[in-house]
Amino acid sequence: MLEISTGADAAAQAAWARFVEARPDASIFQHPDWSAAVTAVFGHTPRHLLARRGGALVGVLPLMQVDSLLGGRLLVSVPYGTYGGVVGDDPAAVAALAAAARRMTDELGARVLDLRSAEPRCPDLEDVSGYLGFVRKLPERVEDVAAFLPKRARAAARHARDRDGVEVRHDPGLLRPVWELYCRSMRRIASINYPLALFEELAGRRGDRLWVSAALHGGRPVAGTISLVFRDTVLPYVLGADDSGRVDGAANLLYWSVMERAVAAGLRTFDYGRSRADNTGAVGFKKNQGFEPRPLGYQRYVPAGRRAPDLKPSNPRYALARRVWRRLPLGVTRVLGTWLARSLPG
Known about the structure:
By secondary structure, the chain is an alpha+beta fold. It is built from eleven helices and 17 strands. It has two domains: about 1-130 and about 295-310, Aminopeptidase (3-Layer(aba) Sandwich); about 135-295, Gcn5-related N-acetyltransferase (GNAT) (Aminopeptidase), CATH 3.40.630. Strand 13 and strand 14 form a beta hairpin. The two termini are about 35 Å apart.
């Protein structure tokens, strides 16, 4: 018989971690490290659901309550994550966890239950379109990574390296300068940045499974990425770049180097994360790297009489704010982005 419990003490979190680490359909975003870091930095209320059968853990649904100034009360699995949703041993466990999450949504008066599954897992939930994933198997040998990249991307990377003298360094000590580049890029595309504290918290929890990489020109970082490693997959979570004319080539070289590092470490999969289908710039860049988009299986439940908020940057109501955002000083957008991120769970 299935038993559904809420919350997770230290022992339950350890079992939860072992459970998702053993499942090929789970991601770092469904690991307790992610939810713990989000709770510590943003203060969202954990509402995690665990399914047991005969005392054994057979399913988890990491879930957090976000009380948003812009969207009202939301239940999200998981905030700021590319993926999320239910991980279960069998359809019965998945269905029981989804049903418990729907009941919780009703009881808490939330506007929406948002599950960010890579594949749709809950037949009774509404599908959410508009999000694309980019995943590709890596070659087995480091020397084959060059041929793994399309000719155009490879040429841009070599141009940055050979003509402009750009070099790549993997160094956790570069976390802050890479975050600063990321903030600069987010202002340029009129989007908010997550706080440095989130990445510091993740670094403390994930250790050498959080990679910080930067492309340097003349010793100065011009592009950088923070990557998450989970099982055999590396996922560059954020990218930052300055406004120089060498950004594209530097970014190509940066990702090439991360791929080589991943292959050398025995990783098998490169996950470019998600992009909104309407974000043609990001989608185009990833396709030019040889990655084909696939629709993600996001799903949601909206209680009767309520309406899910539209918090996407493409919402016309945010058009003026986005135009203004690009003109604000970087020091202002960094602080405002950190504050707004609590109400915009990604």
